[in-house]
Amino acid sequence: MTVNQSERLAERFQTHRTSLRAVAYRMLGSLSEADETVQEAWLRLTRSDPSGVANLGGWLTTVVARVCLDMLRSRKSRREEPLGIHVPDPIVSREDRIDPEQEALLADSVGLALLVVLETLGPAERLAFVLHDMFGVPFDEIAPTVGRSPSAARQLASRARRRVQRAAKVPDADLTCQREVVDAFLAAARGGDLEALLAVLDPDVVVRADRGGVPPGVSRELRGARAVAEQALTFSRLVRFARPVLVNGAAGIVSWLPEGQPFSVMGFTIRRGKIVEIDILADPARLRQLDLTVLDDLRR
Questions:
Q1: Which DSSP string do the residues of 30-51 spell out, in sequence order?
Q2: Which of the four CATH numbers 3.10.450.50, 1.20.1740.10, 3.40.50.2000, 3.40.50.2300 does domain 175-298 have?
Q3: Which terminus of the chain is more solvent-facing, meaning fewer CB atoms within 10 Å of its CB: N or C?
Q4: Is 128 helix (H, G, I), strand (E, B) or coil?
Q5: pLDDT, tens digit, for every residue of 184-208?
Q6: CA–CA separation, 82 and 20 (whole Å)
Q7: Cα-atom radius of gyration of the chain, to the nearest Å?
Q8: Domain locations in the chain as residue ranges
Q9: 248's torsion region: left (phi>0), alpha (psi -120 to 50) or beta?
């Protein structure tokens, strides 16, 4: 391949990079692994003969899907013991501006709560659902990737869809209303006002907290308005260092320790003006991997 051919191939690949990263993020729930997958797709492209590829976008999507499927299966085989709650990597942005690449990743309202539900699917189910329902890939193209017939691939997606519909809560779309509810939650927590907290929480609210390497047996899921409100009060001192942000395009909070290190990212799901789900990433190691530099001036 000549230098000019390599440059043209790199340019063609670049036009697909954002969509490939979006596929990988939905498949893996990890920004770093999504980047690794896209890089692997590029390496495989450079080792192939692109002249015989009629649909480069479709070819690359298939490569990314296969790499993601292998990674998901590898994850599952390593998990001999239940790991409890795993909150996928949140996409954190300022409310006054969203990076264009982040905006592309968040197309179709891929909220943090939906990604948590996707984590419960089997690898083949997740692939079939993501490719078909989120990206419109036909089942006859999905089938070879999962090693099934098109009808079997359709069944995988259908089974996944039912599970997602049962578990995923459809949030209020109005971001202003979301922010009002989250601000009320923050104010009540800062003020130690239990009744005000209960007023903004759905009676069946669920909190999922991923703290990383916690001792075995420590609960990471909390249910019920009173239990959630009482826990929020125990962290009221840290709420002083919390700031409003967007978490996967919805109203959220980032909290810092007094020393300046990030303590948690909280994503909220709001329905009918009440908080129905809170997803918290509080794993120090994973928080350090997030790019929160865009929020530097909010810490003050």
A1: -HHHHHHHHHHHHHHHHTS-GG
A2: 3.10.450.50
A3: C
A4: helix
A5: 999 999 999 999 999 999 999 999 9
A6: 30
A7: 21
A8: 3-84+113-167, 175-298
A9: left
